[in-house]
Design brief:
With 375 residues, the protein is α+β, with helices and mostly antiparallel strands. Helices cover 44% and strands 18% of the residues. Strand 6 and strand 7 form a beta hairpin.
C-alpha cells in the first residue's frame, strides 16, 4: 500500500474543512465615522442661534414691540420660511449647515445615494416630532445603532464626520433595506406628524375666520339702545374694588375728542387708591366707532411700552402694557369698552382686567336689557 493510503479519508473531504480566506479577500465591516451626540447638539445650537439673529433682523422691519394682524401673519410666515430655507437647502445639497460645518459634520444619505430635495424637506420636517416628543427624537441618536435621530430615520440620512468619504457608503447598507427602514418610519411617525401639522393649520385658519375669541368669548354685548351708565353698573366688590365716581367721559383727556354719542368713565378704588378705570362708549354709527378705534391704535403704537392688536370685521381688541399698569380696549359693532388697571390695585393689572371683564360679561348676560343685538 502506498504511504499516501495512510491519509484518512476524512482529511480528503475538503468540503468539510473551513480554511480561512486570504486576508486580502476577507470582507471587513465598514468603519463609518458617525457624528457624536454632543457634537451634533452644539452644531444644532449654533444653527438656531444664527436663525435667531436672522429672524430678529427681518422682524425689525415690521414695527416695534407690538403686534397687529398683518405683522402677526408676516412674523408667522418668517418663522416657518427662514428655518425651512436654512435647513432644507444644505440638506438637499452639500449636507452642511453653518453649525455642522463649524463642528466638522455632514449629512449624507445612508445608502450613499445623492441628497435630494425630498430628503432635505423630510429631514427638516423631522425636527418637529423630534422636538414635540420631549426631544426624545434627538436623544434617539445616543443609543441607536446607526446614530440616527428621528429626522434621520424619516429622511434616510446619517450624520458623519466631514472627513469621512461618503463614496464608501454604498457598502454600508443595501438601498432596498434603506428604503424599507425609511418607509417604516414614515408610516409610523412621518404621516401622523403631517396630519398634526395640517390639523393645526386648519384650526388656526378657523380661529382667524371666526373672529376674536377675546371679544366673542365675553358673552352678550349690550344692545344699541342701552346706556353706557348701565353697561358699567356692575358690582366689583368681590375683587376688592369700590366704586369711586362716575363722570362723563368727555371730562377726561383720553376720550374727550371721541366721536361717540354718549360715554361714561367709572373709577374704582382699592385700599383708598385709584385701581381701575372703565370707559363705556356708545356710537350711533359702527363706521364712526371703527374710526375712533383706529385712532386708539395709532395712539397705542406711540405710547405703550408693548402692545398686541387683533381686529376683524366689526370687532377688535388692543392690549397695552404701561410701566404703571395694563390697558385693554375692546370694540364690538357700535360699542367700545376700555379698561385700565393700575399697579398696586391689589392684583396683577392684566389679571385684574380679566376678572373685571368676566364680571361685566356675567352682568350683561343676566340683564335682559343687554340683548346680544349687535354681535
Amino acid at each position: 500500500m502506498d504511504e499516501n493510503d495512510d491519509i484518512k479519508s476524512e482529511d480528503l473531504d475538503l468540503s468539510r474543512r473551513k480554511a480561512p480566506l486570504p486576508s486580502s479577500l476577507q470582507l471587513k465591516p465598514l468603519s463609518v465615522e458617525k457624528g457624536g451626540f454632543w457634537r451634533r447638539y452644539f452644531a444644532y445650537t449654533i444653527d438656531w442661534f444664527i436663525l435667531g439673529i436672522i429672524y430678529w433682523f427681518f422682524s425689525s422691519f415690521f414695527g416695534g414691540e407690538g403686534a397687529s394682524d398683518w405683522r402677526d401673519i408676516m412674523l408667522s410666515i418668517l418663522g416657518i420660511l427662514i428655518p425651512a430655507v436654512y435647513f432644507v437647502w444644505p440638506y438637499s445639497r452639500g449636507g452642511q449647515t453653518i453649525g455642522k460645518r463649524i463642528l466638522g459634520l455632514r449629512v449624507v444619505s445612508i445608502d450613499g445615494s445623492p441628497l435630494t430635495w425630498r430628503k432635505g424637506i423630510s429631514r427638516t420636517v423631522g425636527y418637529i416630532p423630534s422636538s414635540l416628543a420631549f426631544y426624545i427624537g434627538f436623544l434617539w441618536a445616543i443609543w441607536d445603532a446607526d446614530k440616527q435621530a428621528w429626522q434621520d430615520k424619516l429622511a434616510g440620512t446619517l450624520v458623519l464626520r466631514a472627513s469621512f468619504s461618503s463614496e464608501k457608503l454604498p457598502d454600508y447598507i443595501e438601498p432596498a433595506e434603506a428604503r424599507r427602514r425609511q418607509k417604516r418610519w414614515l408610516l409610523g411617525l412621518g404621516i401622523p406628524t403631517m396630519l398634526i401639522i395640517a390639523t393645526g393649520v386648519i384650526v388656526y385658519a378657523v380661529l382667524i375666520q371666526s373672529g376674536l375669541s377675546e371679544v366673542s368669548g365675553m358673552g352678550a354685548w349690550p344692545a344699541a339702545e342701552a346706556l353706557p351708565e348701565d353697561v358699567v353698573d356692575v358690582d366689583l366688590s368681590h375683587l376688592g374694588l369700590e366704586l369711586s365716581q362716575v363722570i362723563d367721559s368727555r371730562e377726561e383727556g383720553r376720550w374727550e375728542d371721541g366721536q361717540y354719542d354718549r360715554g361714561v368713565l367709572v373709577l374704582f378704588e382699592s385700599g383708598g387708591k385709584d385701581a381701575v378705570y372703565i370707559w363705556a362708549l356708545r356710537y350711533g354709527d359702527t363706521s364712526v366707532a371703527e374710526g375712533d378705534f383706529a385712532s386708539l391704535i395709532g395712539w397705542t403704537e406711540q405710547n405703550c411700552r408693548s402692545y398686541t392688536l387683533r381686529t376683524v370685521e366689526g370687532s377688535g381688541i388692543v392690549n397695552c402694557s404701561y410701566q404703571d399698569g395694563y390697558d385693554r380696549a375692546l370694540r364690538n359693532q357700535n360699542w367700545i369698552l376700555n379698561i385700565l388697571a393700575l399697579n398696586g390695585g391689589g392684583s396683577n393689572p392684566e389679571n385684574m382686567i380679566d376678572q373685571v371683564l368676566a364680571s361685566i360679561s356675567a352682568h350683561w348676560e343676566k340683564s335682559p336689557e343687554f340683548d346680544d343685538a349687535d354681535s
